[in-house]
User: What shape does this take?
Amino acid sequence: MSDIEQKVKEIQEAAVTAILGADGLDRLNEVRVSFLGKKGSLTAVLKSMKNVDPEDRPKVGKWVNDARAEIEARMTEMKNRLDAEKMARELEKEKIDVTLPPKMKFIGHSHPNTIALEEVERIFVGMGYEVIEGPEIEYDDYNFTKLNIPANHPAKDEQDTFYITKDILLRTQTSPVQARVMEKGKLPIRMISPGRVFRSDEVDATHSPSFHQIEGLVIDKNITFADLKGTLDVFAKELFGPETKTKFRPHHFPFTEPSAEVDVSCFKCGGKGCRFCKGSGWIEILGCGMVHPHVLEMCGIDPEEYTGFAFGVGLERIALLKYEIDDMRLLYENDIRFLKQF
Ligand code: DAH
Assistant: This one.
């Protein structure tokens, strides 16, 4: 074997050893430069060709080319291996375990008042009622006078009512919507009216200067107290369960005659008496009555031809009962830890 052939062989072996020992793509590139680059050792053999006997040049050329081909093939092989290893390492780093439980984003939640209101609306809309809202800033006339609450009535006392002017106030009840709807004169009427009301009360576990009521009003020919009882009985059973019983206790409201307060049998103990119903077996839920003929007249309806019933429910009271919340303030603090339980 000639010296040159020997040398080319040694270069090839050294190159292959260096390639196999390369621990990364950078190192592999250095190896390429040192053997095949412009100043590389194999290139140096070609450059020394001028000293070779012209006859031998094709032979030498072939050795060098063969060696080059071998080195390049090994390089490609090694590069593929290093690339694959690099890719595998990166994939390992970026691996996502799709079976892990996700970090849930909390996307908000209906307030217990809203849930209770939607439930009440569902029940009455199912019985053919319309939902009609009225203004929170109201005339004294609608809030009191047209509801048969005379000027000297204790409810008109400034202690209970937030007045804006002498004649304009923050409504203390949703009942003024009754007067507004009756005045429009479109009969018969079957409506509920939910909304915010205001009273200058101190905040405690059962009071707030701003809370919500749902008013109900039905006006038609031949409406009797039996219709009122039947309707509210269905309402109570839908809201608190089919076993629920209702009890109508005589009461007084200026805008209804006769008037009643309605109790439902305790849905906790079924009426036997427990801590929840304070031992009585009954829980008060609303006020109601037959619309006072004087109210009908003041709102332009002939009481000889039409009769009707009305009721008023405290929304917070329903939410507190239904979700067994013992302090009304929790409904207004909007602490997400409390709200998300419902
Ligand atoms: N407006 C009354 C209140 O705030 C509740 C009420 C009672 C409304 C009887 C009515 C009703 O429509 O008939 O206490």
Observations:
- Residues 160 and 175 are 16 Å apart (CA to CA).
- The chain has two domains: 3-94, 112-339.
- The chain is about 40% helix and 20% strand.
- Strands lie at 130-131, 137-139, 168-170, 189-198, 210-220, 246-253, 256-265, 282-291, 307-314.
